[in-house]
Each structure stands twice: as C-alpha cells, then as structure tokens.
C-alpha cells in the first residue's frame, strides 16, 4: 500500500492536486454550483470568436492571418484565437488549469478549441488544407515540465489531433533553454528572452502546414520563435491555435 501510494504521488504537483481535492470542494468556476469545475450552463455561455483579426495591429482579417504590413515582421502566418480572455470564465479556466493544476479542466479547454475549429472550418475551411496539417504543442523546457508535471499545451494539442484525426508531433520541437516567464516582459523583452530557445530535431518538414497549440497568446513572440525554426526546416505555413489572447 505504502509503495503504491508513494508511486502514485511522485511529484509536488500530484501532492498539490491530492490536497486540493481534499481541501477544496469541487465547484463551478462560473457560478459556484457544487460537484463540477464547470457546469453545462456556464460552459454554454462561453463566447467563441466568429470574427478574426491580425494579432499585431488588431485590424480585421478574414481568417486570422497577419495583415499585409504586419506579416513582414513575423515568420508565423497568423493566430487562431478561440475565445476572449476578457470573459472571466475563460481566464479563470486557463489559470486554474495552468497554475492550480486542475487537470480535469483540460477537457473543457479542449472542447472550446474543438468547437471553435469546427465553426472556423465550416466557414473558412477552404483556406486551409486542414487534413494535411501537423499539430504541435508549444513545448516547455524540461525543467518547467518537471516542475508542472505536464505541458498544458500538449494536452490540448492531443485533444485537437485526436478529434480531427490529424498527425501529432510532441517530441520533435524542443525548448532548449529555460527562460524567465514572459508574463512581466514587454514585447521587445519577450522577443529577446525567447530567441534561440527552440530547435527541431526531426526530418525536414518539406512544405508542411503546421498548427502550433498553446493555451494563451500575448504578443505572439513564443509562437513566432517556434515558427522561425519550423520554417527554417521547411514548413510552408505555421499557424497558432490558442484558447484566448491574454
Ligand atoms: Zn456554473
Ligand atoms: Zn496588422
């Protein structure tokens, strides 16, 4: 018993989750209803985006690509953003998933991405050779991954790939360096902080279209640094797909 118990709780996060379950009653992050982290009613109130814009200057673009002038500053082609960080339930879900390690929330966050993508593809699908896309999570450094116990982006990328039956790559794009969290940095500092952090350790990507999954996008510096490496290795298009803009 003792042996299996210690095996079960093998890192700090799992201990945290264990105590979280003991101490906090599970209640809806939206309305406080007991028994679930997100009730059906609050889930159905989540607003999904049906209009898209250039991540950099915010002007409307038809399928979330950068506008013709901003695109010159990016390797990334655009970022598909499913919801609105300003909607309180969305920011709560993301923070609770990422910082409080409430893993069960991954299903709700994944569902948000899937519902959004379904709608997006119905309307704009012809612009994407979607079934040919390769899905990839933004990687964490080995240090951060050990510390958190999971990569939130990888969990979401798996759900999307499974649902749409797309090819998934989780170990080939690598984050070599552990950097300062980007949260308190401005745009320029973010770009410098993340520079040279990623490498690609598999075959040439030969014209592949890639969708990089993450939970949130801010300036796009991290997604863009990944895109730079992926295009250097042959990718033709690199899109971001995130739950919200933070
Ligand atoms: Zn609720
Ligand atoms: Zn723009």
Provide structural commentary.
The protein has nine helices and seven strands; from the N terminus they run αααβααβααββαββαβ. It is of the alpha/beta class and 246 residues long. It has one domain (48-245): 3-Layer(aba) Sandwich (Rossmann fold). α9 (221-232) links the parallel β6 (209-217) and β7 (237-245). α5 (106-124) packs across α7 (152-164). It starts with a helix and ends with a strand.
CATH first level: which class? Alpha Beta
For the terminal residues, how far apart are their CA atoms? Answer: 44 Å
Q: Structural class per helix/strand content?
A: alpha/beta
**N-to-C order of helices and strands:** HHHEHHEHHEEHEEHE
**Hetero ligands:** zinc ion
Number of domain units:
1
CATH fold field value: Rossmann fold
Question: Mean pLDDT across all residues, rounded?
Answer: 89
- Using only CA atoms, what is the Rg? 18 Å
Number of helices: 9
CATH architectural category:
3-Layer(aba) Sandwich
**Count the strands?**
7
Report the uncertain regions. none
Keywords:
single chain, five-stranded parallel sheet, 14% strand, binds zinc ion, two-stranded antiparallel ribbon, 9 helices, alpha/beta, 246 residues, Rossmann fold
Secondary structure topology:
Blueprint: H1 2-8, H2 12-23, H3 40-44, E1 78-81, H4 88-98, H5 106-124, E2 134-137, H6 142-148, H7 152-164, E3 167-168, E4 173-175, H8 187-194, E5 198-200, E6 209-217, H9 221-232, E7 237-245
Parallel strand pairs: 1-7, 2-3, 2-6, 6-7
Antiparallel strand pairs: 4-5
Helix pairs in contact: 5-7
Bound molecules: zinc ion (ZN) (2 copies).
């Amino acid at each position: 018993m003792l042996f299996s118990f210690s095996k079960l709780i093998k890192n700090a996060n799992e201990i945290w989750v264990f105590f979280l379950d003991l101490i906090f009653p599970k209640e809806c992050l939206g309305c406080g209803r007991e028994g679930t982290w997100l009730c059906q009613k609050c889930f159905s109130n989540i607003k999904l985006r049906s209009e898209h814009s250039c991540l950099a200057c915010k002007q409307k673009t038809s399928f979330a690509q950068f506008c013709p002038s901003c695109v010159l500053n990016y390797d990334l082609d655009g970022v598909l953003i499913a919801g609105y960080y300003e909607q309180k339930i969305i920011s709560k879900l993301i923070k609770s998933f990422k910082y409080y390690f409430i893993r069960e929330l991954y299903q709700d966050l994944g569902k948000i991405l899937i519902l959004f993508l379904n709608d997006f593809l119905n309307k704009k699908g012809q612009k994407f050779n979607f079934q040919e896309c390769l899905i990839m999570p933004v990687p964490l450094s080995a240090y951060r991954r050990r510390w958190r116990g999971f990569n939130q982006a990888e969990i979401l990328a798996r759900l999307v790939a499974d649902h749409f039956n797309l090819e998934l790559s989780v170990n080939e794009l690598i984050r070599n360096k552990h950097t300062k969290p980007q949260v308190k940095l401005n745009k320029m500092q973010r770009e410098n902080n993340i520079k040279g952090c990623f490498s690609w350790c598999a075959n040439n990507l030969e014209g592949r279209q890639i969708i990089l999954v993450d939970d949130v996008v801010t300036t796009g510096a991290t997604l863009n640094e990944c895109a730079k490496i992926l295009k250097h290795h042959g990718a033709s298009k690199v899109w971001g797909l995130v739950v919200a803009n933070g």
